[in-house]
């Protein structure tokens, strides 16, 4: 019974994961969290240091939010990935060399995965072959016919 | 007859209700390599560019580390606008690092308005291994502005110009607005400071814009 429920949960999770750039969003959020972790300075000192100190917190928080929002709202993934990669690169200047490089790399890799992610599509080779078949089927009986019957 | 011919094609169009797990594994989004490379290549180029510019000392970098003690050493430190005062840092409530200290650490806050350091070395103990950052070993020195450090230990051979000892920390003026402490606290300030063989154990924070020519970052068995 319990195993059954767990399997149900896992397949539901897999289903949820398959509909969004899961690993990319997760890496981006983790990168933001890592940079924030290396920044644990007390807020009093940060205010003491001024605007640049605040930016050091702002960018990793932006990374974290972009990563989480990618998971929640994958339709906007291009925007989040662009914002995420820019924020990740900015943390090199503002936050301990991008959380000593670790957070910066996590954020960049995550953003690239999000950017490169596409939802379910047929494999390109099958599509190309089908298009070729359609053209061949159309071409041999009536060469000058416009592709009216081809599904876009 | 008509109803049965209706059902068969519609079942072929929507296979979800029958083979659920199969359709899930077949219909999942994927990362397209070439698409990801469109962003990965410029991002990698910019990262490399930032690292190179930083290592040449053309770009300043902000540091604000805390929570774990770390060590900073330099063979020489020269600074203008120096202020130093005592302070009490509070750990987060229930912090496992608190021990029998009651969660408070007595620190010395040093503020240097403009500082240059030769052969800067900074190490953070990550438990087992140390993250080591060195810079300023070549011809150009590391420079920092508004360098603020909360240290528990500070050693070196120091020389000060125009030092005033025993001011109230709230009246300090030589290190700018950042070099001012709470009222009623012992403090000292000086126009210039020179420390040779500097060694600091910083408990809480250093923050300021660093220019790190000759930057090297690596993991090492031993600290600075």
Automatic annotation (TrEMBL), chain A:
The chain crosses the membrane at residues 21-39, 45-71, 78-94, 100-119. Residues 125-152 are annotated as: Disordered. Residues 141-152 have a biased composition (Pro residues). Keywords: Membrane, Transmembrane, Transmembrane helix. Pfam families: DUF6114. It comes from the Bacteria. The keyword Flavoprotein does not apply. InterPro entries: DUF6114 (IPR046096). This is Integral membrane protein. It comes from Streptomyces griseicoloratus.
UniProtKB/TrEMBL annotation, chain B:
Pfam families: DUF6230. Residues 1-28 are annotated as: Disordered. It comes from the Bacteria. Keywords: Membrane, Transmembrane, Transmembrane helix. The chain crosses the membrane at residues 36-59. This is Cholesterol esterase. The lineage of its organism: Bacteria, Bacillati, Actinomycetota, Actinomycetes, Kitasatosporales.
């Amino acid at each position: 019974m319990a195993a059954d429920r767990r399997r149900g949960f896992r397949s539901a999770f897999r289903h949820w994961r398959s509909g969004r750039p899961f690993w990319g969003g997760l890496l981006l959020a983790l990168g933001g969290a890592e940079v924030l972790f290396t920044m644990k300075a007390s807020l009093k000192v940060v205010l003491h240091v001024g605007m640049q100190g605040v930016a050091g917190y702002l960018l990793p928080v932006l990374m974290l939010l972009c990563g989480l929002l990618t998971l929640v709202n994958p339709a906007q993934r291009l925007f989040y990935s662009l914002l995420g990669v820019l924020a990740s690169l900015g943390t090199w200047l503002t936050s301990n060399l991008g959380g000593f490089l670790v957070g910066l790399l996590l954020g960049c890799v995550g953003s690239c995965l999000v950017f490169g992610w596409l939802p379910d599509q047929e494999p390109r080779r099958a599509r190309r072959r089908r298009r070729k078949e359609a053209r061949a089927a159309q071409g041999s009986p009536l060469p000058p016919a416009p592709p009216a019957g081809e599904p876009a | 007859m008509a109803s049965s011919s209706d059902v068969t094609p519609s079942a072929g169009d929507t296979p979800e209700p029958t083979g659920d797990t199969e359709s899930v594994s077949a219909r999942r989004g994927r990362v397209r390599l070439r698409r990801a490379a469109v962003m990965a290549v410029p991002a990698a180029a910019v990262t490399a560019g930032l690292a190179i510019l930083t290592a040449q000392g053309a770009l300043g970098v902000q540091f604000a580390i805390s929570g774990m003690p770390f060590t900073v050493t330099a063979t020489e430190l020269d600074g203008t606008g120096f202020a130093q005062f005592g302070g009490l840092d509070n750990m987060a409530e229930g912090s496992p690092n608190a021990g029998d200290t009651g969660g408070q650490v007595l620190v010395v806050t040093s503020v240097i308005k403009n500082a240059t350091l030769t052969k800067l070395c900074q190490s953070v103990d990550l438990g087992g291994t140390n993250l080591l950052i060195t810079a300023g070993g070549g011809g150009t020195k590391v420079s920092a502005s508004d360098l603020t450090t909360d240290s528990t230990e500070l050693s070196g051979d120091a020389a000060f110009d125009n030092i005033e000892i025993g001011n109230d920390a709230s009246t300090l003026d030589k290190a700018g607005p950042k070099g001012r402490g709470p009222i009623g606290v012992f403090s000292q300030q000086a126009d210039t400071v020179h420390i040779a063989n500097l060694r600091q154990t910083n408990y809480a924070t250093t923050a300021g814009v660093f220019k790190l020519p000759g930057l090297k970052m690596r993991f090492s068995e031993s600290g600075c």
